[in-house]
Specification:
Layout lengths: L1 E4 L5 H16 L5 H10 L2 H9 L3 E8 L2 E9 L3 E7 L8 H14 L6 E6 L4 H7 L2 E2 L4 E3 L2 E9 L2
Parallel strand pairs: 4-5
Antiparallel strand pairs: 1-2, 2-3, 3-4, 5-8, 6-8, 7-8
Pfam family, one: Acetyltransf_10
Protein name: GNAT family N-acetyltransferase
InterPro entries: GNAT_dom (IPR000182), N-acetyltrans/Recomb-assoc (IPR052564)
């Protein structure tokens, strides 16, 4: 398995993986409005514009030429997507993807934390990665999330 920075031609595949995993694991915890909002957020046209402008960064985990995990950040300090194919859960892929973001953050000066708005499904995953809650669960536009932070050491 290899972690690599994704290029523009990888984004469509990455978003397909994200949507597939979202539908199975996240959507059951969301209202129809929340599902619609997330689908709008991960639409190719919306994402590729942000990617082209340098607002979003993507890394992927590749296993035998297949993309099996994705992490995306807004800037370098806010995780906006972290999804791993269900056949590869609990094998350290999310941790490896996250460590890539930590290392990129460490290479920048004055970055002391990484944030995420965790879905209900992923709260425990982020706790295991070392995140702590910074607020109670919130719902905005049907999207349920817990704001969390990770302090860079």
């Amino acid at each position: 398995m290899e972690i690599k920075k994704l290029q523009k031609n990888d984004i469509k595949n990455a978003l397909n993986l994200v949507w597939e995993i979202f539908e199975e694991f996240e959507a059951p915890d969301y209202s129809k409005q929340g599902i619609k909002e997330f689908k709008k957020f991960v639409s190719y046209n919306s994402i590729i514009k942000k990617f082209d402008e340098g607002e979003l960064n993507f890394w992927g985990c590749i296993n035998k030429n297949d993309l099996i995990g994705v992490i995306a950040t807004r800037g370098i300090t806010h995780i906006c997507m972290l999804f791993v194919n269900k056949d590869f859960h609990r094998l350290g892929i999310a941790r490896s993807l996250f460590q890539t973001v930590v290392e990129k953050s460490k290479s920048k000066n004055n970055i002391s934390q990484i944030t995420v708005n965790s879905s209900p499904y992923a709260v425990e995953v982020y706790h295991r990665l070392g995140f702590f809650d910074t607020d109670k669960e919130l719902t905005v536009s049907g999207i349920r999330f817990t704001p969390m932070s990770y302090l860079i050491k």
